[in-house]
């Protein structure tokens, strides 16, 4: 699943649905290579998806965020650290 540009509260609901579908289908790889910015709502959706995936025994991975702020916030929120994203 690819995230690009700015992903904020307005897209959080649709992102949640996509993540839930991906969890049901198997493992998740969230590609953040072209992601420029997120807000707290999106970080919360990603964290909830990670927890749900792990609870169901499914891998949850994130890849390539060029934005160090996103990487830093993600790590603080308990999402995979940049070195573990791929």
What does this structure look like?
- By secondary structure, the chain is an alpha/beta fold.
- The chain has one domain: 2-Layer Sandwich (Transcription Regulator spoIIAA), CATH 3.30.750.
- The protein has three helices and three strands, in the order βαβαβα.
- The protein has a three-stranded parallel beta sheet, with helices on one face.
- α1 packs parallel to α2.
- The model has no long low-confidence stretch (mean pLDDT 82).
Question: Can you tag this structure with a few keywords?
Answer:
alpha/beta, Transcription Regulator spoIIAA, three-stranded parallel sheet, 3 strands
Query: Which sheet architecture does the biggest sheet show?
Result: 3 strands, parallel
Strand order of the largest sheet: 1-2-3
> Which CATH-level-2 architecture?
2-Layer Sandwich
Low-confidence stretches: none
Query: How many strand units?
Result: 3
SS field, number of helical segments: 3
Number of domains: 1
Q: Output mean pLDDT.
A: 82
Q: Helical percent range?
A: 40-55%
Which sequence of SSEs, written as H and E, runs from N to C? EHEHEH
The CATH topology is: Transcription Regulator spoIIAA
Classified in CATH, the superfamily is: STAS domain
Strand content: 15-25%
Query: Given the C-alpha coordinates, what overall shape results?
Result: globular
Distance between the termini: 13 Å
The helix-and-strand class reads alpha/beta
């Amino acid at each position: 699943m690819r995230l690009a540009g700015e992903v904020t509260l307005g897209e959080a609901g649709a992102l949640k649905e996509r993540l839930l579908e991906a969890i049901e289908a198997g493992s998740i790889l969230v590609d953040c290579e072209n992601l420029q910015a997120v807000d707290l709502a999106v970080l919360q959706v990603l964290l909830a998806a990670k927890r749900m995936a792990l609870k169901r025994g499914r891998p949850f991975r994130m890849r390539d965020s060029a934005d160090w702020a996103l990487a830093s916030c993600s790590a603080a929120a308990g999402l995979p650290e940049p070195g573990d994203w791929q």
